[in-house]
Amino acid sequence: MPLGCHFNAVLAAWIRVEAALKFEHGPTNLPSRGRPTQVGTWIGGARGTRGTADPKVTDPAAYARQWQTWWDGLQPEWRKKEKDGKWSTKEYGEKGNEWGPLTQWGVNGTLSIVASLYFWGGNAEAEPQWEAAVLDVAWALEGLVIFYEKF
Q1: CA dist., res. 126 & res. 26, Å (int)
Q2: What single-letter DSSP state applies at residue 76?
């Protein structure tokens, strides 16, 4: 299912992160607190490798709330929210050297974030919130690429 150019940017940045880290497993897993249940189901089903179908998002509004709680909890300490409640994307700055929980890569890391957007993206009624989430994830992954490509 095509999800548009912004989601493609997420995929491209995610691949660059993984390539910079030589496609190895990360040191730990992403925190699961607040994570949408569909992501946990997908992980529990071996990420679709056992022939299971991708989890369905039947209540996009509830998924959006769950996803945002999870995403908020993954942000580095230096990243602040703007007055409109959105995460600042003004600069990575020197503070970008510490990405906190987002520094988890491999099958138990940023892949889960990308998959969470994919599951959510098939719901047209969720489009504005989903699009904002995709843009923010793309920004964060690009920052991680800049950080990891320094190694």
Answers
A1: 31
A2: -
20-56 pLDDT, tens per residue? 888 887 777 899 899 999 988 887 766 666 656 778 8
Structural domain of residue 102, as residue ranges? Answer: 5-148
- Looking at the chain, list the stretches that DSSP marks H as alpha helix, in order from N- to C-terminal side: 5-20, 37-44, 60-74, 110-121, 127-148
Model pTM score: 0.89
Domain count, the chain: 1
CA 70 centroid distance within chain: 9
Which candidate, 1, 4, 133, places its Cα nearest to that of 63?
133
Sign of the torsion angle spanned by Cα atoms 149, 114, 9, 67: negative
